[in-house]
């Protein structure tokens, strides 16, 4: 018996299946119990139930970042915990564990503020931020994790704790993913942004255009954050005419400035090749999802993210071969600026210059074979480390370790051993306890 305000479902009961539904269809948790938590007290009750029975605990908000499926234990679904409270004077928002970025974007915009959200507003605030959180304004403001003011969490001893900067677990949580407990809410910093200059420039995909983008990134101010995606656009009627059936390079831009200045900065890039489509404009932050146009429908995918000290355009273009046995959508994001700054958050490799991310829609392909192909492709890049937010599906122990600077990884292991010695929270990009 678990005494909760939300609901508890066991296999076969109505509600069990919807309780474990998520965006990622490559796998699905199959726990002994789903706790659809209505609030922090329910989370505490679920963790206490699990801890007293030595049952591991999985957590799911949206399912965008499913790492390892739980085949037993307790799944805490935070989907119904969606409270958001903006403190205008403090420029912060208190968000409950199941909140998606879209809600915070809309609430914050009413007060002339914006959160450090990423390319998709459907992603969960907490999962994204625990993995660092690489957003549209990242080069100006750093990782979302750098702006967290307080975290409320239930640790493996079923104790609710409020953590603030200076507490030993605080920095480890912000970068260490879901390894230390179930976060019930978070106070995040907001920034005074209402409009930006942004959108996309589409070119025929080539190594030359990737090289032109890379060279251009060396010239842009920190207020401009950009990425390039190499995407095979399907030959279907819904695809925009000029892109339909083509392999395109989609440069995504978010610039904190006015259109005239943005146009001036972007001019050399616009001249770098034949532009198939150009959606750059001044836009309200509430429309920032249109910059990347990430998929909104649940599907099955696998992917990995590699942090790089430099970008080899031919190598990046080579990974994107649409005719490959495991075809990959490749995306490279420009890092630097405030991302390289000091922070209590244990996000690794802050001096990396780019993060390269490969994703393959599974479309019936064998996930294991796709992941092996990704690991092998990633190996050829000689990256500085892994970016775990872009690891879709299980990571190897080496990939997890490579996400952190060695001292930070040792600290994560020390804290994991102290706070979760039985590895209750293991269905994630796991940092196992020592021993
Ligand atoms: C389309 C798409 C776009 C994306 N864009 C970006 C981007 O721009 N920048 C970026 O940095 N990342 C991005 N991501 C990655 C995303 O941030 C991660 O996948 C993140 O883990 C998703 O969190 P979630 O809560 O939405 O997903 P979920 O699958 O619900 O959660 C993922 C994991 O986060 C942990 N977790 C979630 N909630 C809690 C909690 N309350 N307490 C403890 N642990 C918890 C758990 O380990 C859980 O398994 C994107 C992913 C997708 C699919």
| CATH architect. name of the largest domain | 3-Layer(aba) Sandwich
**C-alpha termini separation:** 33 Å
Q: Report on the biggest sheet.
A: 9 strands, antiparallel
Q: From the alpha-carbon coordinates, what is the Rg to the nearest angstrom?
A: 21 Å
Please outline the helices and strands.
Blueprint lengths: L6 E3 L6 H4 L13 E4 L3 H13 L4 E4 L13 E4 L6 E4 L4 E5 L4 H9 L15 H6 L7 H4 L6 E7 L5 E4 L4 H9 L5 E8 L5 E10 L2 H11 L6 E9 L14 E9 L3 H12 L6 E2 L2 E4 L4 H4 L8 E8 L4 H7 L9 E6 L19 E8 L5 H14 L4 E2 L10 H5 L4 H14 L16
Parallel strand pairs: 2-4, 3-4
Antiparallel strand pairs: 1-2, 5-6, 6-9, 7-8, 7-9, 10-12, 10-13, 10-14, 11-12, 11-16, 15-17, 15-18, 16-17
The protein binds flavin-adenine dinucleotide (FAD).
Task: Give an overview of the whole structure.
With 435 residues, the chain is an alpha+beta fold. It has three domains: 7-77, Uridine Diphospho-n-acetylenolpyruvylglucosamine Reductase, domain 2 (2-Layer Sandwich); 84-192 and 408-419, Uridine Diphospho-n-acetylenolpyruvylglucosamine Reductase, domain 3 (2-Layer Sandwich); 195-396, Vanillyl-alcohol Oxidase, Chain A, domain 3 (3-Layer(aba) Sandwich). Helix content is 26%, strand content 23%. Strands 10, 11, 12, 13, 14, 15, 16, 17 and 18 form a nine-stranded antiparallel beta sheet that branches. A five-stranded antiparallel beta sheet has the order 5-6-9-7-8. A four-stranded mixed beta sheet has the order 1-2-4-3, with helices on one face. A hairpin with a 4-residue loop joins strand 5 and strand 6 (92-96). The longest helix is centred in the last third of the chain and has 14 residues, at 367-380. The structure holds flavin-adenine dinucleotide. The site of flavin-adenine dinucleotide has 33 residues, from strand 3, helix 4 and strand 9.
